[in-house]
Amino acid sequence: MTVVALEQAVSAPLCTRVLCDLGARVIKVENPDGGDSARHIDDVVNGQAAHFVWANRGKESLALDLKSAAGMAILHRLLARADVLVSNLTPGTTTRLGIAPDDLAVRHPDLIAVEIDGYGQGGPLSHKRAYDLLVQAESGVCAITGHPGAPAKPGPPIADASAGLYTALTVVALLYAGERRGGRGGAVAVSLFDTMTELMGYPLTHTRHSGTEQQPIGMSSPAVAPYGAYRTADGRTVVLGTTNDREWQRLARGLLDRPDLADDERLRTNPGRVAHRALLDEAIAAWCARHDLADVQRRADDAGIGNARYNTPAEVLAHPHLAARDRWRTVDTPGGPIPALLPPPVIKGYDMPMGAVPALGEHTHRILAELGTGAEELGE
After folding, report:
1. This prediction's pTM
2. pLDDT confidence of 99, banded at 50, 70, 90?
3. Which CATH superfamily groups domain 2-199+327-378?
């Protein structure tokens, strides 16, 4: 499959990188004047931007000026051979360029045309630019993250990334459906706002039916208790959690040695434990403060209690679980080879390509030659 990408930042690039990981050829069309804006966010990866090298490995970079007639002519020749077009340009750009999904349905009826935008069409926010933080704020995500009076943005760009993953899933489904019915084509629209309101499913459902807004509680969950982070005797942080009444009984009796809490009628069910969260957190914090992290985790494992160690990014880079499972690979970039994590799917009999991160316009001449044209057509 050939995927043409008119993309920038994270949402569409991550979508097409996933498709690339799964075997598609991805041709990334970039403005010759600077290319994808994510190329220039920082220069920490051997002179390259961390966002860009993360989301763009394995792709081919074609430098085209789409404001020129020659550039658009070459794009259409490329689309005539492609299976999918993925774009996330600023609102109205594809319409101005004449490559909105409705336009492409006429000129390239077998092409799956995908647009990722901020807020979807037909609403009062449809015209607005939408960056990850802006959509997280608009969709209520920041209001349920952090602490009361101190809202926070979740660290990863979850609006961008989740929209990209939803889009990749949709593309694969349409390709499969097209194979079955003997024809492809179709328009797909995925918005960051719709994606985040979908991921807000639990808090929105809870608020609608309870009439209350749950307050954020940092490294915990308003839905269940006990569930949170606790300091240990050696100054580390352990995360302990229960998700049902049986686990609570194991934690109270087998880990804390507190049969009084296990028998407390107020704590018998999760709603009661949520209502008395402070009591539980105090008891668990006191117990953890008397034990080193390794001891807490060993005892929790023995008791069948979910637990984890709070890690910083630097600690994750050296995580023994990643090393033991051989999750790191080397990827080439214009600035030299770098380590990169394998994608999450482990597919028996299939090795992820883990191709190089392209320089701006690196594959322009080769792709033009495939199309039967030369650089002179672009005025080069």
Report:
1. 0.93
2. very high
3. Crotonobetainyl-coa:carnitine coa-transferase; domain 1 (3.40.50.10540)
